Amino acid sequence: TRQKMIVCGQAWFNAVFRSLDEHVEIVWLVEEGEWVDAGIQLCTLSGGARGLLTGERTALNVLQTLSAVATESWQYSRAVVGTNCQILDTRKTLPGLRLAQKYAVKCGGCLNHRVGLYDGILIKENHIIAAGSISAAVSRARLISSVVVEVEVENQSELREAVAAHPDRIMLDNFSLEEMREAVAWVAGRIPLEASGDVTLETLYAVARTGVDFISVGALTKNISAIDLSMRISVVDI
Questions:
Q1: Of the listed 57, 125, 190, 228, which one is catalytic?
Q2: In Å, how far are 26, 80, 107 from 72, measured between CA atoms?
Q3: What is the pLDDT of residues 6-40, one digit of tens each?
């Protein structure tokens, strides 16, 4: 590796090569989830040139992408040390890689929000309009599912209506720091609060200090810059 990183994606890396050549031998020199410095060799591979060269790009692509997600997650999780706030990912993932990216988020130390529409209900503005009110939307959600029901609110008035509807969690969408503090004080622990909306690594700690229980961060899985990895081959005479 040419960069510091959290190692993530070994199983996917292995699967690429073994799908091409079951006789490829892979020996990892570092552990999954381990922090490594630049210049560290991650693994050794032994096998035929055809399998190694065919799988090289795909294997590196997945390893450097998942390691990048895990490294980003590690940075975010470290940034809120000393608070009671937990960092969540979102559904803003790369096509086809949602489960893999969510695995990488956990590997780096943050937590998963819902995976899809089936394992959690997030009632947003359009749902509220369609249902007629926040309370109506929550009531309908309770009728059809036993999963966590969360309501997104955009102001203090909607917050009060949401609390009265008794969802499992409330998302504060694009609240200012002062508005978050006011929301935390008024809700007073009755319902967990989640902050969302363009939170960056630079602003994360200040948001966590407002007293919210969760912060959801789309940047954990989108706009990821892949870790710079390479593979070098040497020919061995047999």
A1: 57
A2: 26, 13, 10
A3: 999 999 999 999 999 999 999 999 999 999 999 99
